[in-house]
Design a protein that fits this description.
Helices cover 71% and strands 6% of the residues. With 287 residues, it is mainly alpha-helical.
């Protein structure tokens, strides 16, 4: 696998933006666990090749794993669709004061549904983190302008990326200060832990608001006008290999969208061809 430095220097930002856009579309249209597992693996691979530092990489992986686990657990506990198969009964159903409580169980179908949603999140989120970490803001701004995005929106997106490391550093500083001032969070219990996590976000949010106000005043003093006419230099031709990769991404994504559209038309009884039954079966199994 190429290193993060080679990815940052070698891949055209247009290819990276197209990859994130394709991942977003595939996360919407795909429903099969194998295909979503491939999407999640691609997101993890892009994150590993983005050139993140060891601490940032482990933080991103741990954050994704924590959110994926919470998604699976919440869906497994509160899945309400039918059919559903109990894997473990945590609290049996009972009746008290004339009110019947259904109990609490871990449902197999809910866990599978949560795993599918978690794979969607991992694939798209990690691809976006890889794009932000491996693309300088000025090149991302130039790429978005060439894609036709209005300058004001492109400028806000590129400027916000510059402050992601600052916000991450402030968050880490707050956590270190909290650790040095009090006992470990794991001793506070679940609700105490949650209260402390919310409390630690307050200084970070306050600093971000102050920073945004200072930046806005600086732009206003300098006469910044997002609607003013601007010229931008060309990005140059994309290497042949990357053009081929871009075509492959577009082809795979377009094929997936087209096939799922065909499947949705079949489910809605709007258009059906008997000779396409093997294709319908393949779409159901793999997409």
């Amino acid at each position: 696998m190429p290193s993060g430095d080679s990815l940052r220097a070698g891949l055209d930002p247009r290819l990276k933006v197209a990859g994130v856009a394709c991942a977003s579309l595939l996360a919407v249209v795909l429903d099969s666990p194998p295909s979503l597992l491939a999407l999640g693996a691609a997101g993890v691979a892009s994150l590993l090749g983005a050139g993140l530092g060891r601490r940032a990489l482990w933080a991103a992986l741990a954050g994704g794993a924590a959110i994926a686990w919470s998604t699976v657990l919440s869906q497994a506990l509160f899945y309400g669709a039918e059919p559903r198969t109990p894997v473990a009964v945590l609290l049996p159903a009972f009746e008290a004061a004339g009110i019947r409580f259904p109990g609490l169980a871990v449902w197999k179908e809910g866990a599978l549904h949560g795993a599918v949603q978690a794979l969607r999140f991992v694939g798209v989120t990690y691809a976006g983190i890889a794009l932000a970490a491996s693309t300088p803001p000025e090149r991302l701004l130039q790429t978005m302008r060439r894609l036709g995005i209005p300058y004001g929106l492109a400028f806000m997106a590129a400027t916000s990326l510059r402050f992601v490391p600052v916000v991450a550093a402030e968050t880490w500083a707050v956590r270190v200060a909290r650790r040095q001032r009090g006992r470990p969070l794991w001793r506070l219990g679940p609700w105490g832990w949650l209260r402390e996590e919310v409390a630690m976000l307050r200084p970070v949010i306050g600093a971000s608001i102050r920073r945004a106000r200072v930046l806005a005043e600086s732009l206003d003093v300098r006469g910044f006008d997002p609607l003013a006419r601007r010229t931008h230099r060309g990005s140059g031709p994309m290497p042949a290999g990357q053009r081929l990769a871009l075509g492959g991404l577009a082809g795979v994504t377009g094929a997936a969208v087209g096939l799922k559209t065909l499947w949705w038309l079949y489910l809605a009884e709007l258009w059906y061809r008997p000779e396409l039954r093997p294709l319908y079966g393949w779409i159901r199994a793999w997409l």
